[in-house]
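Quick question about two entries, pasted in order.
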Amino acid sequence: MPSFDEVLKEAGEFGRFQKRVFFLLSQTGITFSSLFASVVFLGRAPGNFWCRIPGAADLGDRCGWTLEEERNFTVLPLQLGNESATGECERLDVTWDTSAGCTSPLALPGNHSTGSPPLAPCHGNWVYEQPHSSIVSEYDLVCGNAWMLDLSQAILNLGFLAGAFILGYAADRYGRIPIYLLSCLGVGICGIIVAFSPNFTVFLIFRFLQGMFGKGTWMTCYVIVTEIVGSDQRIVGIVIQMFFTLGIIMLPGIAYLIPTWQGIQLAISLPNFLFLLYYWVVPESPRWLLTRKKGEKALKIMRNIAKHNGKFLSPHYSEITISNEEVSNPSFLDLVRTPQMRRNTLILMYAWFTSALIYQGLVMRLGIIGGNLYLDFFISGAVELPAALLIVVTIDRVGRRLPFAMSNIVAGIACLITAFLPEDIPWLKTTVATLGRLSITIAFEVVYLVNSELYPTTLRNFGVSLCSSLCDLGGIIAPFLLFRLAAIWLELPLIIFSILAAVCGLLVLLLPETKGISLPETLEDVEQL
């Protein structure tokens, strides 16, 4: 009986059929990256806001004040006693006399006395010039509640983490396509509920669920693409990352054109319902079917692939070699039971963690140093396109291991140099920082490919999902690490990033080279790499 790779070679390793499936599934990268980075625009600064004094609303309605007039009457008396006061997080500890006139703001406080006016912290009584522009103004995530915006991103990454475990396991047990379609449905439904959440608690719950299902769509589509092409064509695992970058590039344009956060949320969520149409055009992974002892179904799909590719399978292909490895429900112990698997798993987990922490840290650092949010975000996304092109050009010539190691080391060196460059040479500081972003993007994209090539078919989806869960842990830690260390010294996070990246670059040199090697089918195949 022929092996799966022999049958795939005759049916076409990257023909018309695989190209169609690749293009369709790659669209998932656009929606997933939009979800991944959406907090930048969902949680953008709401513009001017201030704390309303009790009684101001009634008086404002009676007097017919505009919001600007109410703000002046609220903030100016406050600033008379404290010039540094902004009126955003504190207010006069008074109640306005609603029987007073409408023209003299100094006469409005009913218990005004000489000296500095008494102040009180603001609690849920804010007024925004743009009340529905972001979740910040929608749910009052300002002043003492500002940390809750960081929490919303941490909750999303926690959802990614849960999705890696739950849906990664489910895809190995129940199939790639059923879990992919279920995840697409979940992302769409949860996204709609997030957009119309009546309070922040409901927002967090369904943002977590949207993150969980979103991770299911991305990881499962990636595994399907790598399993239906030949060993010489697995570079598609890198090319699919370009669609992730495309989503990053498109997001600021969407946010610029849509003025409300609900509109942005719907724009990045609703397209997932279109992916449900893939039920009729994208088949189950034949590699997965073989591991579940479903050789006839796998052969039927292979004949269909050959037909669409303009080829014909030999009549003697009545069966395909099925792995003799006993199929069981995968667990973490399967990933560390044998020496090679244990080494690969631990190094890949660290690589995922490091890549995500540095990548997200460098993206969020743009918000600290200021600038045009839309333009800076677009440029930071555009920088990632050369990363994928560099990988496509080099990875099949020099292999996976060397670019993987060098990209981490260069990223570490770039972060270290950026930290100590003087501020009076902004062009040089920006250039070196961009080199660091480019390098860590290369590392982030290569780890996807290497991870899928170092696990057997029976454990591939679970292994990729579990190792990439460390990416989500890095995403949870990144905002807290960045902002806490930057409060001590703005460049301190870059020092930490440089150390983590350099260590990762050295560790990945211990991984086996997988250039031109067939995907391993069993644990024995992995041990022989």
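Here is the second entry:
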Amino acid sequence: MAPPNNRKLLIVGAGASGLPSLRHALLYGVDVVCFELTNQVGGLWNYKPQETDLSSVMKTTVINTSKEMTAYSDFPPEGTMANFMHNTEMYRYLQNYSDHYELDKHIKFNHKVNSIDRNEDYDKTGKWKVYYTDDKGVTHDTVFDGVLLCSGHHTTPNWPTKFRGQDDFKGRIIHSHSYKDHRGYEDKTVVVVGIGNSGGDVAVELSRIAKQVYLVTRRGTWVFNRIFDYGKPIDMVMNRKFLSDLRSIVPAWLSNTVVEAKLNMRFDHKAYGLKPAHRVFGAHPTVNDELPNRIACGTVRIKPNIANFTEYGIVFQDGSKIDHVDEVVMSTGFSFEFGLVEKGELIKVNNNHVSLYQYMFPTDLSDHNSLAVIGLVQPFGSIMPLSEMQARVYMEQFTGNNVVPSKREMIDNVHDKLEKMARRYVKSNRHTIQVDYVDYIEELAKLIGAQLDMRQLWKEDPWLAYKVYFGPRVPYIYRLNGPHKWKEARNAILSVDERVLMATNDHSQVEPDYSVLYIAGILLVALIILYILF
């Protein structure tokens, strides 16, 4: 724990991004308080059965990233926790984290932030005036030296432009934001629009009790299973430093071809009506274990985009139609905005595009960098370790270590990321905050000196070096070096496989990780073919 720091920091939100931000603020000795709108921690992982403007998981939601890749860097999950936790177990992990580090002492529950404005002396001090309503309904204003916005980006439903005839449709139309569970959908004909993770989950769940489910997709998608070969969690296989380094030197078409071939071995995406025109790394993937089975059973049928609604039905762009539709669930994603900060005029968002250095610091406020956004990224992998690393970057900057570059460099970094996204991804509002998990967390780690000197590590601790380079890029790796090292980091890294196995069979012994050799073998063969051809 660092010596006390008299600078005052406000954290908005006690969810999966706010909690690690609070934890690291305390490590730095900052005078910190967190305002949470509800009466509990957990954010969207705190399931809310009633209709509300607040974000919430569905009753049956299971995380699509594994527990070890989702954990915070100094709080490994219990071995008996499922590798892919149900939302109630995920919530328990967050509550345990808060309890373990006594974060509740610094959280003011039922406190609503109404607005955040630059203080009168902002140009000189970088301070912010925050107007809020406390748990008794009394309004206050307080000046803070810094503000962290940790309220997430799944709060504002994104509704597509209305289809022709939609206003005359007699059935019910909701957004997946409002979908809680299957009750009320029994024996009905349901159309789910959108094949992202929410759309796939809703379609699969309802296919068990509805009369028929139709899943609408404009362009198709590549579907990943949570489980890879040998039963390994897919994100633990894909997010490895050696693979990241390999992808940086291998042509993109080769990486795409190898992964697409592997996905098609599970099921032929073209035969199932899902094969998109874009390559697998050209869009955010859909993670769903059951969708191909439900399609094979006929309880989910794939349809192209909607052409128009009729009074009771829907006509699709291929000319097919459903004469009677009871329910439509728009699983069309979310928009984000920063209306709290000077009524949205300070951090402007246009079609989910926003100018934030490292998706954190507004480039228009680069004179002080005292306000930042945490968790506004969309990786293939978990957001939580990235949010934690963002918080560490902010705390370094906030406590005077000046890790953020000049305004010109910040703007160049934003433009560079936008250009790379535009070249790689399908044009879509959901592809504005995409990051590659390993590359991005490495980039942040370098800002605060938490990256590893691999040459030195190979000399001093070759077994650990092997684990961190060829094994999954678990968050504990970034507490070996840098500010606030964690003395248990090495042990946490070396015991990952044990905790993964314990979740499914606590009587087995850990076997060698063959998935590394498997992937390396596939890529080696691909490289040999490439060498022969060119």
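Reply: The first helix runs from residue 18 to 27. The longest strand covers residues 5-12. Hope that helps.
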